[in-house]
Specification:
With about 400 residues, the chain is of the alpha+beta class. The protein is about 50% helix and about 10% strand. Strands 1, 2, 3, 4, 5, 6 and 7 form a seven-stranded antiparallel beta sheet that branches. Strand 2 and strand 3 form a beta hairpin. The chain is elongated, with a radius of gyration of 28 Å. It starts with 17 loop residues before the first helix and ends in a 5-residue tail after the last helix.
Amino acid sequence: MSLPTPFGLHPSTTEFDASDALRLSQRLIQVGIALSSETDLQRLLELIVAQARELTHCDGASLFVREGEELRFFVVNRHEELRDLRLPLSPSSIVGYVVLTGESLNLPDVYRLPADRPYAFNPQVDRQTGYRTRSLLTVPMRDPSGKILGALQLLNRLKPDHPTPLAPDQVAEWSQPFSELEVSVAEALASQAAVAYQNVQLREELKSAHFETIFCLSVAAEYRDQDTSFHLKRMSNYSRIIAKHLGLSSHEQELIFYASPMHDVGKIGIPDAILQKPGRLTPEERQIMNRHPEIGYEILSKSDSELMQKSAIIALTHHEKFDGSGYPRGLKGEGIPLEGRIVALADVFDALASRRPYKEAWALNEVFQFVEDNSGSHFDPQVVAAFNRGRSEILEIYHRYQETR
C-alpha cells in the first residue's frame, strides 16, 4: 500500500519545533488511515514496521505479537532470517519487559545498560550477523482498553548525514539516541497498530465463522450423497490452488475457496431414492439428478452478497464441460464461467481419487492421467495447466485431509 511522501522534517537536525510536531501529527493521521484500510494481516504488520522506520529515521524495525506466553517476532529490512521466530515472554528480555509492564524503553546504547536493570540485551543476533545494535526504542502495542498486544521495536536511529548504503558493522557508528518526540511518535503508531491488528483479527474470525456456517450447510447436503466433509475441504483447497496458479487475485482466490463447498447444495432437492441409489440410474432418474445444479443456483442466487453470487455460478456450472457436452445448459469453452471450469476439475479430481461406497479410489497417477487425457474435452486446458503447476500443493492437500478408514 502506498502512502504520501515523508512528513517533511528538516533532514539536518534531530531537534523538533512546533511545526515539526504538527507535520508528524498529520503524518500519523495518514498512516492511521492506511493501517485501517489494510485487510491482510501479513501486509498490515509489514506496513507498520515500514512506517515506523520512515517516521523515526531508524535503520531497522521489528514487531512482536503476543501469542499466549510467547512473542512472535516479525522483522522487516534487517535480519529477515529471524522472521516468525518465537520467544518466551519473560521480563528479563527488553521486549518481554515492555509487553509485561507496558513501559516504553528508550535505550541510547544497549551494550551499556546499568547492571541493576531487570532486563538485559541479548547480543546473540549481533554476533551471528555482524550487525551492531546501539540505540534501541521499544514501545508497547496497547489497544484502547489498555490491553497490550505486543511491542514495536526500533533499532539505531541514524544521524541525518549518514552515508548510503551502510554495511551492518557501520550502523552503530552512525547511530544516535531516539528523541523524546520520536518516542511519542512510536507510541502513537504502536497504538494505531494495535487497533488495526485487532480489526484484522476480528475480520478474520468473522470470515472463519462465516465459512464454517457455509461449510456445515454444505456438509448437510453432501451427507445425503454419502460424501464426507473431507471432500469439501479437499476440493475447496484444490480450487483455490488452481485459481492461484491461473494468476487470479487473492480476493478471487478467497471467494472461490469459500464458494466452492456449496457446489452441490442443490442435491438437497433430489429425492433420497435417487440420490442414494446403489446401482446405475435410469435415464429418467438421471434427468432428475441432473437438475441439482439448477436447484443449487435457485437457492443461492437469491442473495445479493458477492460470495453467494459466486456460489450460485459455481453450483450452476461445475458440471459443464469444455467441449459443450456437460449439463445443465451445455455451455462450451469460455462460455462457461471461469470459476465453474476451476471447480469442475477440482471436483472430478477428488471424486476419482477418493473411495466411495460404490467404488474404490483410483491410483493418483491414473487420476492425473485422466485429467491430461480430458484436457480440451471435459476440462479447460488453461485450468489443467494451472492444476499441473500446483501439483505439489494439490498432493499436500490430498494427504492432509484423508478420512480415517
